[in-house]
Amino acid sequence: MGRRKFIAARLATQMFSCWLEEALLRGIIRPPRARFDFYQARSAWSRAEWIGAGRMAIDGLKEVQESVMRIEAGLSTYEKELALMGEDYQDIFRQQVRESAEWQKAGLSRPVWIAQAYQQQIAESRRPEEETTPRET
Question: Rounded to two decimals, what is the model's pTM?
Answer without folding.
Answer: 0.49
